[in-house]
Amino acid sequence: MRFSSGLSEIVLIVSDVPNAARFYRDVVGLEPETDPDDGWAWFWAGEPGQPQRVALHNGTLLFEEHSPLPEGERWGRVHYAFRVPREQLAAAVDNVRQQGVDVYGPVRLEWMSADSYYFYDPDGNLLEFWSQDAESGMPMPAPDA
To answer: What is the pLDDT of residues 38-55, one digit of tens each?
Structure first.
């Protein structure tokens, strides 16, 4: 049974919210939902107003004390991909490089008929610009398909 109808938000724990917010705005190209402060910054992960967001936070989150991991490692580093239309992929990658950030790739993902480029944010989170060969709206196949 499927319960999720999509991604609501990703919250990244960062050391410096204003610095990370500049990176996500200027390098990744996300549109801010709110102005950043010392504790939080919110961005639209896709089209503004759509219910997919990325948040940057420099504190603890709810229920962190229940994590099985040791303090300081309870959320760890993350990886996530931004879907980029094929016709915008080169410009997106060039923008990251022009900001002085190392970009790795392209990596061909045959099982998804996609190409990806990878780079790190200031807190060591691995980001990906992911682009399918054809923007058909078809769901991605499972890796073992």
So the answer is: 999 999 988 888 778 898
- Return the SS3 of 94: helix
Residue 43 near residue 35 (C-beta atoms within 8 A): no
Closest CA to 117 of 86, 78, 76: 86
Summarize pLDDT for 56-112 with one digit per residue, the tens: 988 776 667 776 777 767 665 677 888 899 999 999 999 999 999 999 999 999 988
Task: Please give the domain boundaries of the chain with CATH numbers for all domains.
Answer: 1-60 (3.10.180.10), 79-145 (3.10.180.10)
* Beta strands 79-83; 104-109: pairing state: unpaired
Of 48, 39, 51, 119, the C-alpha closest to 79 is 119
Could you tell me which of 62, 56, 68, 64 has the C-alpha nearest to residue 17? Answer: 56
C-alpha–C-alpha distance, residues 14 and 120, integer Å: 13
